[in-house]
């Protein structure tokens, strides 16, 4: 269980430190060269979309606890959908 928790905890940490790294690297390139490399500009353009998808997956992990309930499948499905409203 601690291994699974540490893997889940790495998602927000990777997003946070990865975004800091990309922004600092882009600032340094712009500061020293006057422009940002095309590859780095492409990453900066795509990063918010990738981060949003990862955040949605991270938040959706918390809705999986409804499958441990002792209830009818319809109630479980309703609880699962209610838990995923923030993701939608």
TrEMBL record:
Keyword Membrane included in the entry's annotation: yes
Entry's transmembrane regions: 7-27, 47-67
Domain DUF7670: 41-87
Transmembrane keyword on record: yes
Keywords for this protein: Membrane, Transmembrane, Transmembrane helix
Name the UniProt record assigns to this protein: DUF7670 domain-containing protein
Species assigned in the record: Gracilinema caldarium (strain ATCC 51460 / DSM 7334 / H1) (Treponema caldarium)
